[in-house]
């Protein structure tokens, strides 16, 4: 398996948010984690990305131990992309510069090639010089995903990716995103409360707290 989580447990003070969570994910697949508000969905993504540290459990990604009782690799060294629910774009940077920000190492020409390819993929080539305030919710979502993909992550995490979109845009973005991820061979985990999100995108559905 490409990603294996075993007995992942996390608590804040005396409140246990994740209890002995385990799953296995194959490379290039899309996994949806379903759960109601407060079930720990966003916390799960923060644990996988390295923004939170588990109380116990282990994670192996691409045959490498990311954390266990002896090892904890910091978030910036995990090669995992995370798209937050509010997209977290930089308001003072253009669409192009926001995407470019996701590229850690590369010369100017290589960065330009990567950004141009991603702009084409997410259909924002004509909007590259706009700022987030000039972009619709769907455009901002695409910028955030392109930025997360810019550094070629081993794993992409999406937190309620469609919650800010109206229904017609949701339907279009679900189709487009599945197409992008399958074409690029990206391994994706998305958390959502929406069963339709899971049904339309996922190869595997896991219910948190079930």
Q: What would your notes on this structure say?
A:
Helix content is 32%, strand content 26%. It has a domain at 91-146. A hairpin with a 2-residue loop joins β4 and β5. The two termini are 23 Å apart. The longest helix is centred in the last third of the chain and has 18 residues, at 167-184. α2 (95-101) packs parallel to α4 and α3 (108-121) packs across α4 (137-149). The model has no long low-confidence stretch (mean pLDDT 91). The protein is globular, with a radius of gyration of 17 Å. It is α/β, with parallel strands linked by helices.
Count of discrete alpha- or pi-helical segments spanning 4 or more residues = 6
Instruction: Name the average pLDDT.
Output: 91
The largest sheet is: 5 strands, parallel
What is the terminal separation in angstroms? Answer: 23 Å
How many runs of DSSP E, i.e. beta strands? 9
Structural class: alpha/beta
Estimate the helix proportion, in percent.
25-40%
Low-confidence stretches: none
Order of SSEs:
EEEHEEEHHHEHEHE
Shape: globular
Q: What Rg is obtained from the alpha carbons, in whole angstroms?
A: 17 Å
What order do the strands of the largest sheet run in, or round the barrel if closed? 6-7-8-3-9
* Relative strand content: 25-35%
């Amino acid at each position: 398996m490409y990603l294996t989580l075993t007995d992942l447990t996390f608590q804040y003070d005396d409140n246990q948010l994740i209890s002995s969570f385990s799953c296995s994910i194959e490379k290039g697949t899309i996994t949806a984690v379903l759960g109601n508000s407060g079930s720990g969905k966003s916390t799960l993504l923060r644990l996988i990305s390295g923004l939170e540290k588990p109380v116990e459990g282990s994670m192996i990604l691409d045959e490498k131990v990311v954390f266990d009782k002896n090892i904890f690799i910091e978030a910036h060294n995990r090669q995992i992309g995370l798209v937050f629910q509010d997209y977290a774009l930089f308001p003072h940077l253009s669409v192009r510069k926001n995407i470019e920000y996701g590229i850690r190492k590369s010369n100017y020409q290589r960065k330009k090639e990567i950004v141009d390819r991603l702009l084409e993929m997410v259909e924002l080539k004509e909007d590259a010089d706009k700022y987030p305030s000039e972009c619709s919710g769907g455009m901002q979502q695409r910028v955030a995903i392109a930025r997360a993909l810019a550094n070629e992550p081993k794993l992409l995490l999406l937190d309620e990716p469609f919650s800010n979109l109206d229904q017609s845009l949701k339907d279009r973005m679900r189709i487009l995103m599945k197409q992008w991820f399958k074409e690029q061979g990206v391994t994706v985990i998305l958390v959502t409360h929406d069963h339709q999100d899971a049904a339309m995108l996922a190869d595997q559905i896991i219910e948190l707290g079930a």
